[in-house]
Design a protein that fits this description.
A: elongated, B: alpha/beta, 10 helices, 10 strands
Chain lengths: 260, 262
């Protein structure tokens, strides 16, 4: 019994220590990000890396989700005699939840692993130490642009995922029975307002913060050669995905409270 | 009312002393977990002087250099650069001090996504913004010529040998015209001819730039060649400090043992 308790306490202690270190890391990044000189060139490079490079994957994931959602919703709503609600069900599901969360998870996989592995590799080969030894703040040069790029790009990628999801949702319906895009949009967006659209899209900025912050943190604290790089990449993806899902729970509740 | 940072900067300026040694380390302690690496070590190096720090592998020689440039924080003790204590300084304040220091890493630590030219230009691009692009280019060429790498500007670090990487690392370390140079195992892993070339290069640069240097090595021949003074460390502290002849004449068992096997 006692070894179990002590190992549980050890785990809690480790988690709290990790969380404290993450908080200190975040503070260092914020301090570096708001004081000049600003690393604009690196920010633009990261906007391209996070945004343009993730677009095909996010669009594909959004499209696949739209098709699955359309097939499932058709089956369920037809069973309960509510087939007329099909476009609205697809639109609301995609915009409210599946678009943002799928984007968050796809980006945490692609970008989280990329950032984690890149920075970890730089860390174990002493390149980050060399940056610091050259009197350049690595939080300003490496972490801040990557985190900011994730924050700025997630809502835009979410729009792309939403668009592809809705289009493929419509195509899937149109293949089964005649339904014009106009009819789909009119019926789907009936009764929808900006509160249905903006908060779920902008909540992905928090996902971006989580993905960028955790990936940079895991990468820049790596130790132990090639194995350390692998561990950093894996833990970046696992932890950022986990925290994106947990944050989504909180954010959905907050959105329901503040944007009823 | 001054902020804490402003007070720290003023304190630092007040502490600066032109007569102080370029590098002064006092009663430095450093542990990693339960492993004690440095145990109250004290050293001082003046401008124009080169100190070689010798010792067995894993005795904290590289850690000492990392503490001097602020990449690690000591558990206790002080590190003074031109009289200013750098322990506890914020990253940006430390940056001011680091601009006067050049650091050659054991494995050169070149940025693997940048060319040789871009590696050497990196400190200039961040700290010499008043210089034009062509002035940066000229300075990079001059530095690479000094280390004999003027023909490899466009090469990537992965395309050049270990010795060449160290030369480029040395050029990068000299880019901001530092008055302190820290060299971590400059000849480790090199063949005898490349090692001799690096030794000659370091000697030439020291003569030309008149810097205060610390060379960490376990290569006694290299230490003898490039340093006027040697310090042998064991179990986290200095066992003996002096000229090569003083080390040779020492009666200390560890010193005799070390010299016998070097």
């Amino acid at each position: 019994m006692f070894p179990m308790v002590s190992s549980a306490l050890g785990l809690i202690n480790k988690f709290l220590e990790w969380f404290g270190d993450l908080g200190i890391f975040f503070w260092q990044v914020v301090r570096a990000a708001v004081t000049p000189p600003f690393a604009f060139r690196e920010l633009f490079r990261q906007l391209d890396e996070v945004g343009s490079m993730s677009l095909p994957l996010v669009a594909l994931a959004g499209a696949a989700t739209g098709i699955v959602l359309s097939l499932e919703a058709r089956y369920s709503l037809t069973r309960f005699g509510a087939k007329s609600l099909l476009p609205a069900a697809i639109v609301f599901s995609v915009i409210h939840e599946t678009g943002p969360i799928i984007t968050g998870l796809v980006v945490s996989g692609r970008v989280g692993a990329g950032i984690g592995a890149e920075l970890a590799s730089m860390k174990v080969t002493e390149q980050i130490d060399a940056i610091e030894a050259s009197a350049v703040n690595p939080y300003r040069l490496l972490a801040a642009p990557r985190i900011l790029a994730c924050i700025l790009m997630l809502p835009l990628l979410t729009l792309a995922a939403d668009l592809c999801g809705l289009l493929m949702g419509w195509v899937t319906q149109a293949l089964v029975e005649p339904l014009s895009l106009r009819q789909f949009i009119d019926s789907g967006f009936k009764g929808a307002d900006f509160n249905d659209f903006l908060p779920p899209t902008f909540k992905t900025m928090v996902f971006g913060l989580i993905i960028g912050l955790i990936a940079c943190f895991q990468g820049m604290r790596t130790r132990g050669g090639a194995a350390g790089v692998g561990r950093a990449a894996t833990s970046s993806v696992v932890l950022s995905s986990l925290f994106v899902i947990l944050a989504d729970v909180v954010l959905v509740k907050l959105i329901l409270i503040f944007f009823p | 009312m001054d902020t804490i940072d402003q007070v720290a900067v003023k304190r630092g300026e007040a502490e600066k002393d032109s007569s102080a040694p370029a590098i002064a380390v006092e009663d430095l302690h450093k542990s990693f977990g339960s492993q004690k690496v440095l145990n109250g070590i004290s050293l001082a190096v003046s401008r124009g002087e080169t100190l070689a720090v010798l010792g067995r592998s894993g005795t904290g020689k590289s850690v000492l250099l990392r503490l001097i440039i602020g990449l690690e924080k000591p558990d206790s003790g002080s590190v003074r650069i031109h009289g200013q204590d750098i322990v506890g300084l914020a990253l940006d304040q430390l940056g001011e001090i680091r601009m006067k220091m050049g650091f050659l890493f054991q494995h050169a630590a070149l940025y693997d996504s940048l060319t040789v030219e871009q590696n050497v230009a990196f400190p200039l691009q961040h700290h010499k913004k008043e210089m034009s692009k062509s002035e940066h280019g000229d300075r990079v060429k001059q530095l690479l010529t000094e280390v004999g790498m003027e023909g490899d500007l466009e090469k990537m670090p992965s395309d050049i040998s270990g010795g060449m990487q160290k030369r480029v690392g040395l050029a990068r370390a000299l880019a901001l015209e530092p008055d302190i140079l820290l060299l971590d195992e400059p000849t480790a892993g090199l063949d005898p001819i490349s090692a001799a070339e690096i030794n000659d290069l370091v000697l030439k640069l020291q003569e030309e730039h008149h810097m205060a240097s610390i060379v960490v090595t376990h290569d006694l021949h290299s230490a003898k060649t490039i340093a006027g003074r040697l310090a042998l460390i064991n179990e986290g502290n200095v066992v003996i400090e002096g000229s090569f002849e003083e080390l040779q004449n020492s009666d200390i068992e560890f010193v005799r043992e070390f010299l016998k096997h070097s």
